[in-house]
Amino acid sequence: MNRFSRIFPKINPSSLRVRLTIGIAVFSALGLGGLTTWTGWKMQQLLINSHKENMEQIASRLPLDVEVYSQMLPFTTALEKAISNRETNNTLLWITNTNNTLLAKSSNFNPSSDTYANELINLTKMPLVPEVYHIKGHSYVLCGGELKIRGKVLGKVSIAQDITRDQAMFVAMIQSMGIATILVIILISGGIAFYVSYSLQPLRQISRMTEAVQAEDLGEARLYLNNAPSEVKELAQTVNMMLSRLADAWEKERQFTSNISHELRTSLTIVHGYLQSILRRQQNLTEIQKEALLTAASEAERTIHILQDLLDLARADSGYLQLSKEPCILDDIVTEIVSMAQQNSSREITIEIENNPITIKADSNRIKQILLNLIDNAVKYSDPDTPINVNLHQIKNQVIIQICDKGYGIPLQNQSHIFERFYRVDTARTHSNGTGLGLSIAKTLVEKMGGSISVRSKLGEGSVFTVSLPC
């Protein structure tokens, strides 16, 4: 079943597989249908022509037979003798004089009792060249000619051959051929669909491989196709070259971000230190100067935090972010961070922790950074008079930390992007001067420790960020 679903995936009318299958099947159907139609027409012509040739032979030989027999027998007897030699079950013969009076006929021709025979004898003129006539559902090949003996015209010879049975057999054969053609077209279409789907598997393989490539895997991601057509291999080689160029560009970007963040952070740290030093000796400063220096120091500190976040992200992307995993009591870390956040924000933050201490092996400093970012996010995007709740509990081999707020909430269409770098929900821009890096940093650190982070939010009711870490 799995193999069948791989070869015949969900049908998409716009896919190359469906288009190729339909196109080839249509051309195959037209070709087979045309061949069947031409074969049927040709066979019908051969059948009718054989009857015509037989009737032409009878029409040409019958006067000669009459002339021969009339030399030995009376004229009427000679007519009957000649007709009896030429008649068959399906061949009707009769001879009339110039006044259209019946002189002789074959034994199977009875105009008085046979409706079809009566219709035939009432025909005004017989064709000199054999032609097909349809009379009341029956098909006949008719032919006529003059009866000449010693150059004298004595009457007319009429010949009719009933081909109704042959026509019925021919129609039945054509119907059988039509059914067989339809079945062959269906089988061919199925075979074509299977073959096209099988032939397109390398393209689907390329699609799956490229879909799984992440930014951090660009340096090692390569497509390897062994049994693919040469054109597909060329495509895979082109994709590999593109991945290589993207890897180089990504590496240069990460290196640039890391270098510029490091250099700017160092310079701004020195500037911030000088500003703090001047502020500590503020006796000779005016109020305007103090306010300006405080603003400059605050912005310098904020920029240093942004650069530190960028540096952490660059190190994580490069694989150089080191985590010192050691046993730590999570209850103490959560209590410490909540106390620190309450002092800095003057917000009501409650804690719900299980009675038994929870110990995990992780980087305690990075856990503090994660909690600070999440609590800071909850403080920024909720009203000052609403509480923030931090829950800590253990479920089997997972530790669950939840930061709940009763803030503005996140629209559903934005929730899948909330952990992207520099992403900020438009409706929240007026409430905070955040950088859009805090949640991205938290997600990166959690995943580096083997955990996961998710969000559940509703507009006007608040958000719940859930961090899951292995025990």
TrEMBL record:
PANTHER family listed in its UniProt record: HISTIDINE KINASE 1 (PTHR43711:SF1), TWO-COMPONENT HISTIDINE KINASE (PTHR43711)
CDD domains (alphabetical): HAMP, HATPase, HisKA
Known function: Photoreceptor which exists in two forms that are reversibly interconvertible by light: the R form that absorbs maximally in the red region of the spectrum and the FR form that absorbs maximally in the far-red region.
EC number of this enzyme: 2.7.13.3
Class of the enzyme per the UniProt entry, highest EC level: transferase
Transmembrane segment boundaries: 20-41, 177-198
Protein's name according to its UniProt entry: histidine kinase
Keyword Transmembrane helix: yes
Biological source species: Brunnivagina elsteri CCALA 953
Subcellular location: Membrane
A Gene Ontology molecular function term of the record: phosphorelay sensor kinase activity
Keywords associated with the record: Kinase, Membrane, Phosphoprotein, Transferase, Transmembrane, Transmembrane helix, Two-component regulatory system
Pfam families associated with the record: HAMP, HATPase_c, HisKA
Residue span, Histidine kinase domain: 259-471
HAMP domain boundaries: 197-251
Annotated catalysed reactions: ATP + protein L-histidine = ADP + protein N-phospho-L-histidine
One annotated Gene Ontology cellular component of this protein: membrane
